[in-house]
Design a protein that fits this description.
14 strands; 4 helices; 7-stranded mixed sheet; globular
């Protein structure tokens, strides 16, 4: 079982490797709503067109944070209402291309991140920056993208922070500017449980909440 999970993780990372990019308030997120208008929604809606809605499920949320021009913004992806109910995730997070994602290995595009308590029992976690072959949707919106994948030997994913990512803010960023961070969905993305419930996964992405970075 462990070997199978590691193989799946490696496959997810390989998929990410085949997939980096001044915008404020232009990320596709409706600032009047708490719900994300994630990039790649057409692909999402096509995949889940025949999947029924459920009244509640996992809540993915990106944080609202502040940073100084020239400083580092810390953006956290978290999950709630899914404690010990999920076993794997593969999630793309978008950010304005004027930010530089902080990497721990530039050659391999490995992202510097802080693993959160939700991944305490994870058997594998990898995060990479998507630097080449970005979809036209993200290029036009001037968005960069990072990918994180994690898995467990069962439904041992917890509520809480999944991971915190670090972004270098340009020196020229104006005080008071608000930049959006959000999700990008493609068909290989996943937020699953061992039962393989498509309704569970649909809820997670459809009800995800985007975040912001405000320059102070």
């Amino acid at each position: 079982m462990k070997t199978k999970l590691v193989s799946l993780l490696a496959a997810a990372v390989m998929a990410a490797s085949f997939m980096t990019s001044c915008s404020s308030n232009d990320s596709g997120k409706d600032s009047s709503s708490d719900k994300t208008n994630m990039y790649g929604y057409s692909e999402f809606s096509e995949k889940f067109a025949d999947i029924a809605d459920i009244p509640e499920g996992p809540q993915l949320t990106l944080s609202n944070t502040t940073a100084k021009a020239g400083g580092i913004a810390e953006v956290t992806l978290s999950v709630s209402n899914a404690d010990l109910k999920w076993n794997m995730c593969g999630i793309h997070i978008t950010f304005p291309d004027v930010f530089d994602c902080v990497l721990k290995n530039e050659e391999e595009r490995l992202v510097e991140f802080q693993k959160g308590t939700a991944l305490e029992f994870a058997t594998g976690v990898v995060s990479m920056e998507w630097q080449e072959g970005l979809p036209e949707e993200l290029i036009k919106a001037r968005q960069g993208c990072v990918f994180i994948t994690a898995m467990f030997n069962g439904d041992y994913g917890q509520d809480g922070d999944i991971a915190t990512f670090y972004f270098q803010i340009p020196e020229t960023a104006a005080v008071g500017a608000v930049y959006n961070v959000d999700l990008y969905y493609q068909s290989t993305d996943i937020f699953s449980n061992t039962a393989g419930s498509a309704e569970f996964e649909k809820y997670a992405f459809e009800h995800a909440v985007g975040g912001t970075v405000t320059i102070e």
